Amino acid sequence: MAVSPHLTLVDGSGYIFRAYHSLPPMTRPDGTPVNAVYGFTTMLLKLMADSASDHLAVVFDAGRRTFRTELYPAYKAQRPEPPEDLVPQFAVIREAVRALNVPCLEREGFEADDLIATYARHARAQGARVTIVSSDKDLMQLVRDGVDMLDPMKNKTIGPTEVMEKFGVPPTRVVDVQALAGDSVDNVPGVPGIGLKTAAQLISTYGDLDTLLARAGEIPQPRRRQMLQEHADDARLSRELVRLRDDLEISETLADLGLTKPDPETLRAFLSENGFRSLLARVEAVCGPAPAGTPATAAASPAVDDYHLVTTVAALEPWIAEARHAGVVAVDTETNSLKARTATLVGVSLATRPGRACYIPFAHQPPHSGTLALDGPATGPFAIDDRDGALALLGELLADPGVLKVGHNIKFDLHVFKGVGLDTVAPLDDTMVLSYVLDGTLHGHGMDELAERHLGRTTIPFEAVCGKGKTQITFDRVPLDKALAYAAEDADVTLRLHKVLRPRLLAERLVRVYETLDRPMVPLLAAMEQAGVMVDPLRLRALSETFARRMGDLEDEIHGLAGHPFNVASPKQLGEVLFDEMGLPGGKRSSKTGAWSTDAQVLDTLAGDGHVLPARVLDWRQYAKLKSTYTDALVEDIDPATRRVHTTYGLTTTSTGRLSSNDPNLQNIPIRSEDGRKIREAFVAPPGHRLVSADYSQIELRLVAHVADIKALRDAFAHGQDIHALTASQVFGVPIEGMDPLLRRRAKAINFGILYGISAHGLARQLGITRGEAGAFIEAYLARFPEIQAYMDRVKEEARAKGYVETPFGRRIPTPGISDRNPVARAMAERQAINAPIQGGAADIIKRAMIRLPDALAEAGLTARLLLQVHDELIVEVPKTELDALVPLLRRTMRDTVALTDDKGRTTVPLEVDVGVGGSWAEAH
């Protein structure tokens, strides 16, 4: 029996605006914005790969002037012009459609919806099914037998039932309902006072619009009757505006819309021209295999995944040999916990080529159900037949220098392997880190998201194998057939991602960043996390008691100022006290809850105006945060086996390349406050050891002097001068000798504030001066150091042209929002662009120092080890006997890790390192 043709008609405008608003700004090499082009191309590629249609076309609006605007000039007149950075993308999007060999339809004088209606009618007349890809309510009038819609946002089919739920009438009466209700978005007048619900009731009662208008005098409600009689012509006009024309003359027949594969070279050329290297991996999915000699991509995969369960050492040996022969293997571990350092190894998966992977169970528990024939016993703890033998084989593979081990967040796996005695995993690559180096924070770097983005593949969710909520099971209880499918896919997808992402490093000139800065950090951070830092729980508990007493005293004082007790921790009660009872100025209510806002900014402003109660609340909140976040929580975070706290470092979360610290976060302990210092006193060295703190001195200011080529600042750093005193002298015209400390403080605020694009308002608040004074200070500063302004202008221009800025070491930092039409959002993006190369450059420098340090320690025969990194500071634990050797080695390693030089190789700004030693972190710092 012949299969009916299936035509899919894509509403091009819907795709365009969805793509534009879902992606941050992107530009191709010539500066043309392409974020909407990228999103549109991605969605259309996915539709072509997933759709069962054999006919396809994309339909566009040809312009704003149509027969409807001739009929009613106000039609859609109030719609804003499209965003400036979207306009040049319209033509490129049409190029994308043609590159994919998809018919591109549009007609002057008519809307895309009219073309869709016409082609749907012709296709149905020829016996074809029609799917309209859109969520536009105006197209719902076309739904009928053989014509449905697909909402691409919800991946939901819209048929007659869904139309009835939306409009309260069947599709054949949607036009009448819209004619009555009108549409404020499109400026369709309708009948005043009649909404969709009332319109549906009227049409259901009277059958159609003409009958309703003819019998309007019968309407019992006076106001409704009057409106229908007075605005009958508006209703008829509205019907002409919303009714889609399906009688246009068309040149393409159904046969002309047949879905055919794109020309691979044409498509590759288009993707390359626009910088869409990540989409090249999908070419084979729609074009078929590449010709001989064309580089393979990860998307070229077998039709059926070749996954195997390995339950004996004899079965494992061929996989080890296969990995050695390939020279690269993707590795992933399954555990019963997300606490990598203490998690139990449940299984290991390996992938040796795209589509071919295996899973080795080490600790699965019965009962299990599945359809696979298993080699091992079905009773007792289920695992490979020889655990020690299997681990020995894996250990040899992981340590083999001739086999590249690829993981996704492989730092997690390094901890798990170390837990079973496999200490060496090298060389290694990490697809999560690769993605971060290539795309920064433009998107997330989780495997599921990258698989969808680069491979067009939806991976098996964890909940599908382990459940969720109270019924969730640990992975060791997952049936082996499900475990195989899930775990082997993880390794397989990791290998496919590696084949897509690794080649981009060379093409995008990011090899140095990955190879010298980020990849070496993976095993180094794993070692630091393993080491942890010793913490004294007695000191922390004593601090918690002290903070609790201070909070209690402050509560008593706050209640006295308010005149009655209330819950200081309740923003609602606090707002009522401040603004309802005390009548303090400047209060703002939340638009959602109607409650007064009492955030830190509000309280800061009130305290700055001399109001005592909000100042005391800020003090109370500070102690509450210190207690809950640090003194209480850190005690719970101490590992009883090591008596240490083991943080987890994130390598792929910040926009500038800085590390993050979590669970617990050790990078946000207050530095300058006395209470923060007391918390650091609880971080101690073990007996016979000391902690050494090494901190780059004013590294961000030194980088500014270097990258902006500010001679006065470069000379000051070269001669070891007080940079803030010098700045004050230069800006305010006073001698350094005998300088007023207040002037130096103001210069210091400007020096550091300028890195973050500080405004006159921000500086005024920081220094407690008027905005006029602050603005004059900034103007004088920029006049004295014009190189700063030139640097800022240059960076903003670079960000707008490229969509990113670069650190002095080549790291790319995306700058979404740099061309935002909203001036506030744009100004914020500009400030971030100015600061990013400086903060990112400082992060790159300390990473280079960290990477060099272990080899320097080993060469010197020292057993000292790196424990923590907190932005510009390193914390090292060292035996007392090695202290004299370590301090100069540490200072030298950090100072000499990079030279800031000019184009002639001469040092422009020296790096300096401050080193302290003590029995605690506070004492060392």
From TrEMBL:
GO terms for molecular function: 3'-5' exonuclease activity; 5'-3' exonuclease activity; DNA binding; DNA-directed DNA polymerase activity. It catalyses: DNA(n) + a 2'-deoxyribonucleoside 5'-triphosphate = DNA(n+1) + diphosphate. CDD domains: DNA_pol_A_pol_I_C, DNA_polA_I_Ecoli_like_exo, H3TH_53EXO, PIN_53EXO. One of its GO terms (biological process) is DNA-templated DNA replication. InterPro entries: 3'-5'_exonuclease_dom, 5-3_exonucl_a-hlix_arch_N, 5-3_exonuclease, 5-3_exonuclease_C_sf, DNA-dir_DNA_pol_A_CS, DNA-dir_DNA_pol_A_palm_dom, DNA/RNA_pol_sf, DNA_polI_H3TH. It comes from the Bacteria. It is an enzyme of class 2 (transferase). Its EC number is 2.7.7.7. SMART domains: 35EXOc, 53EXOc, HhH2, POLAc. Keywords: DNA damage, DNA repair, DNA replication, DNA-binding, DNA-directed DNA polymerase, Exonuclease, Hydrolase, Nuclease, Nucleotidyltransferase, Transferase. Residues 676-882 form the DNA-directed DNA polymerase family A palm domain. Residues 5-260 form the 5'-3' exonuclease domain. Residues 307-506 form the 3'-5' exonuclease domain. Single-chain monomer with multiple functions. In addition to polymerase activity, this DNA polymerase exhibits 3'-5' and 5'-3' exonuclease activity. Belongs to the DNA polymerase type-A family. This is DNA polymerase I. It comes from Pararhodospirillum photometricum DSM 122. The lineage of its organism: Bacteria, Pseudomonadati, Pseudomonadota, Alphaproteobacteria, Rhodospirillales. The gene is polA.
